[in-house]
Amino acid sequence: MQKTTEPEPLADRPAIVQTIDIAWHPLVAKLPLKDPKHPTMIALRDDIEARGIDTPLVVCQDALEPGGFLLLDGRHRLRAAMDAGLMLVPVQVVPEAEASERILASIVHRNHFTKGQLAFLCVDVIEEQIAGRGGDRKSKTAKRSLIGREEICARYGIGRTLLDSARQVRDIFAADPDFAEKMQPKIFADIDDKPVSLGQVIAGYHGKEATEGLPLDRLKNVVPRCYVAMGTWEHAFNHWDKIPPNKQGEIRQAWGRILATLPESLRDVKPLPRGKK
Q1: Backbone angles phi, psi at 7, to 5 degrees
Q2: What contacts 40, CB < 8 A, 6 or more positions away?
Q3: How large a percentage of the chain has pLDDT more than 70?
């Protein structure tokens, strides 16, 4: 009896697939795309129209769509190929388990990104990798998760503080789409146009929240209100041990947001001895 052989898995094999069968991986869909009218995109489209795609797109099989694929790397090439009218494109199919690693590597290897831009682009992918290493910060595996976060940040040269800022900006953008539409292009502005930092975005958002709706003649009241707020914080810190643990947690989160918005000129302020003003 002739022995039948199992079909060779598609993963790790080159293939030619239809463009209509390729969807964006959810993590890739959040990455910014150049305007189709940008000179580099026009040149890319013309080159692909004339010669085709030299370097295969990187995809994984779509577990929810039989016969479909999820794009991991090559979003500009795919867009240019579709604009050029190509129906078939070369792809490299990798295992789904490698998806986040491939996406992260493709972003990091683009050396034209600043550290802040890189952190913002990578935050979702890094968090997915951290989750895969064992839980989140609130779980019993928090220590293991922390180790995983430090390892991954070190591997890609993204500091934990910067990653925390990227997480804040991502959450701000999710909560305020109008602010996101205004500020995200400024994060990815060309160097000559001076892109804004993640810290500037966070500070700008909290400043917007503090002053939104206030007429100009009332903005002068912001400073006295700050003094009142600081007095409230000082009172809370002086009675810290009497505050219930759940409220301490809320204060920690609020204070963390405040520290993230401190201007550089305030970051080197030395604490005064108790009792001195």
Answers
A1: -65, 140
A2: 34
A3: 75
- Tell me the two tokens of residue 50: 């004339």
- Cα 8 from chain centre: 36
Q: What are residue 14's DSSP bridge partners?
A: 92
Alpha helix segments (H runs only) across the chain: 39-51, 75-83, 99-108, 115-132, 142-156, 160-175, 177-187, 198-211, 222-238, 245-260
Q: Is the dihedral of CA 233, 234, 237, 242 positive or negative?
A: negative
Q: What's the pLDDT tens digit per position in 190-229?
A: 766 678 888 888 888 887 776 666 555 554 555 555 655 6
Angle at 116 between CA 111 and CA 119, to 5 degrees: 85
Place of tokens 């006295």: 224
What per-residue confidence (pLDDT) applies to 228? 56
Residue 31: how many other CB atoms lie within 10 Å: 18
Helix (H) or strand (E) holding 69: strand 69-73
6 versus 227: which is more confidently predicted? 227
* Residues ≥6 apart with Cβ < 8 Å to 244: none
Q: Which helix (H) or strand (E) holds 189?
A: none
Task: Pull the structure tokens for residue 216.
Answer: 């100009």
CA distance 115 to 198: 10
Query: Looking up tokens 């990091």, which residue turns up?
Result: 108
Note the pTM of the prediction, 2 decimals: 0.57
Helix 39-51 with 75-83: angle, nearest 10 deg: 70
Confidence of residue 273 (pLDDT cuts 50, 70, 90): low
